[in-house]
Please model this.
Amino acid sequence: MSQPTPGKVLLSADQIATIVARLGREVSHDYNGRHPVLISLLKGGVVFLADLIRQISIPHHIEFLQVSSYNGSTQSSGRVRILTDLGVSIEGRDVLIVEDVIDTGTTLAYIVDTLRLRNPGSLEICALLRKRVSNQAGIPVRYLGHEIPDTFVVGYGLDYNENFRHLPFVAELDGPAR
Ligand code: IMP
Ligand code: MG
Model:
């Protein structure tokens, strides 16, 4: 049986670059003078973060948080655990969560609840992709790159069983796993 492979390209590298440049301008404008902490969600968010910060023209810090909610499948398990926590206190800081894709919203809802307990000065979300999902948790996304259909995607940091993160574009996953 053949393995799932990247199929139809939903966002080309050029389209992603245009989106990330826009998001960088918005963040630079809104956070001017505030020295925000950008929190990237490992592992999928690192490619997006790396490109985004090079489009941000104001001083800021970066931190990483790793949570687990998917167990090597294309369906959300609905369970979230912190695997790697932040290295600093975020009390009083302006925090911007940098996420690759919002699917059910379960992961972000948990992270937002957890980080709010640490009393940040503000807490907002920047997501590259959001799926059009009917029962998505009502997460307010301050900065949104692009909306995509409710389909499993890979590339630009996003994986299927740890594969395909390196692709410079975002593509639908084709094959038997779907
Ligand atoms: P949610 O909790 O259902 O919103 O899922 C969020 C996380 O699941 C994302 O941060 C991704 O790491 C992962 N994920 C969700 N959809 C996809 C996808 O289509 N491709 C790859 N990873 C995904
Ligand atoms: Mg993620």
User: Anything to note?
Assistant: Residues 41, 44-45, 99-100 surround magnesium ion (ligand 2) (CB under 6 Å). The longest strand covers residues 122-131. Residues 155 and 164 are 5 Å apart (CA to CA). The chain is about 20% helix and 30% strand.
